[in-house]
Amino acid sequence: MLAFEESNFINIGERCNVAGSTVFKKHIQNDNFAAALEIAKKQISEGAQVLDLNFDDGMIDGPAAMAHFVNLITCEPDISRVPICIDSSDFQVIEAGLKCTQGKSIVNSISLKEGEEEFLQKAATVKRYGAAVVIMAFDEQGQADSFERKIGICQRSYDLLVDKAGIDPTDIIFDPNVLTIGTGLSEHNNYGKDFIQTVEWIKKNLPGALVSGGLSNVSFAFRGNKIIREAIHSVFLYYATNVGLDMGIVHAGNLPLLKDIDPLLKQLCDDLIWNRNGTEVTEQMLLYAEKVKGKGVKKANTSDNDWNAKPLSARLSDAIVNGIDKYIVADVEEYRVSTDIEPIEIIEGPLLDAMGIVGDLFGSGKMFLPQVIKSARVMKKAVAHLTPFIEAPK
Fold first, then answer.
1. Which end of the chain is less packed: N or C, by CB atoms within 10 Å?
2. Which residue blocks in 9-87 are alpha helix, DSSP H?
């Protein structure tokens, strides 16, 4: 995996999780590990940079399934090139995975829920296998649900891991609990703001530590309304990554660009996340949700008539920026035939200009890696069409 400072977010694929995917669970229960591997491959092709594996189910032998699947992954170059996140509430399952992983893996997770002694014992095991570890913001009193509780547990965990367990701070990944907003309960109104402010606090006060989060939780109050959930995810991720969120569980490729979100919905998301206007904004969001019920976030219009009505240069740009490959070959060919421009100049001109827009959006945190990968695939398809003309004898 290649990660760099400007990459702004590492995407963790979650579809190899029996709790989150009924299809994956069915494959595992039916001992169809070949089909399960295809799900892993698809996630990586869609932009997942870390693969989360979870086999926690009463009808599945967790340690055996984890060990077998990890062993299969090591023989698959397309999958084994990304780190594995070994995810289980049963530490026996985690250790079964650790024994089989190649390279550096991530353990998800340990916490102070059972007290310091058990916490340090598990940390020692993780260190022995050379893995990084996710620390959930839980302690003996339960889940942290406020800014003060979150930073208190994270500070305590950090001190124990660094000072007593000898864990490298860069192997510590905090998950400060993404909790659901917009529930109508006033005590939940600060959950979004508290998470974002906790991320910022961790990056400033716990040197070297990384921060992760499960994105889908934040919008759970609007389950069944795709347009609302996708918009909340994109806006929430924008703010969280700007203050230092390093990674998270996101359905790769399903995030709308901020510019594609209706301005009114964008404002409602802002107000909901930052707890402006209290429960009133929740009521406003519910009214908006009724208007768009059953719809998805409107991305670029891809009906044939509307698409072809746009200027050709705009079609090339929109296709790459929005990751639409349906028309790219025909549009590139039309551009090549209808102009005197050399094929290489088409690549270096309008196509690279469009990728420049993608780069600007990505660099400013307004576009995320799964979307960049979709854009790159469209660019690759356009270049592949032009390559024979570039290589043809003059």
1. C
2. 22-29, 33-45, 62-73, 77-80
